[in-house]
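re: ur question from yesterday

yeah so i grabbed the chain u mentioned. its 334 aa long if i counted rite. heres the sequnce exactly as i have it in my notes:
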Amino acid sequence: MHSSLRGKRILVTGGAGFIGSRLVSALLAQEASVVVLADEACNIFRIEPLLKEPALHLVRCRWWERTDLDAGRREIGEIDLLAHLGLNVPPADGFQKQARLEIRLNLVPTLDLLDAIGGGTISGVCFASSMSVYGRPSRLPLRESDIPNPVTTYGASKLAIEDFLQAYGCSNGVPVTVLRYSTVYGPGELGHRAVPNFVRAVSEGRAPTINGDGAERRDYVYVDDVVEATVGALAVRPNRVLNIGSGAAYRTTEIAMEVIRLYSSNVEPVFLPRVGENIDVTCDISTARDELGYRPRVPISEGIKREIEWYEREARMKYPALLGDKGGQRNAAS
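ran it thru and got these structure tokens back, copy pasting raw so excuse formatting
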């Protein structure tokens, strides 16, 4: 247990989401007091079992709308630490429109959020960023010292928030830890991404579809390993950027075939024309190991097995209406 988190009041944006909900559970286990911001339209099924916990405070608030944030200020209360995982998803509608929405819905609200929770009075910030800030890697594995060069509005938005948070930290003497997550997967994942798409298809007896030849490599990391790193970052509060992944890379075809194997299915992947470029991603996690003692524990086969078990036990049986939902928010894993 990280005793330094006991009794701390921690605000978690995206706390009802895939990664955030498991972070909330882990922080409660550390005897922290946790505040989750979720607007009225947000489905909170992932944290419903935790609502009976007296240390969990659910505030129905659109944190990206300043008027809502100001109105909820009293209910939010005094905050010791901020875990910023939640970001809004602009519709795919051209670069210019997406870029402006990223600034209006994610960058500016992040600055408003810092202002609303007390500015320099908090003792630490942990921001869930993404490998997307690196863009096209000039070498692999990716290291924190590599120069970021985002090629998407999502990556550019993440990098801009990183920069502003670090500038805020320098101005206010607040340590800011930036965690650049790789591809996070595991139980609770419902987004339209490789693992849940493959699980959904094979579960229904359909062939999983792959865009392109499936040869691209991604660094897949299990959600509980990411949560452990995030809890550690909130406790230790290193004032730096850290890569959070598995340190290994897997082809998309390997992931699809592992899902097929675990289902004992006879289907074969179907390959579709690729939209966009192929970018391989593997990250060096040695700095996170040195700073946080971070060591991913769950191998890919076990992690996919756990996601399948959750999908069959929880998602298909209890939440079928959500399986086609693309959602209105994303967290750092998207």
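noticed a couple things. The mean pLDDT is 91. also The longest strand covers residues 124-130.
anyway ttyl
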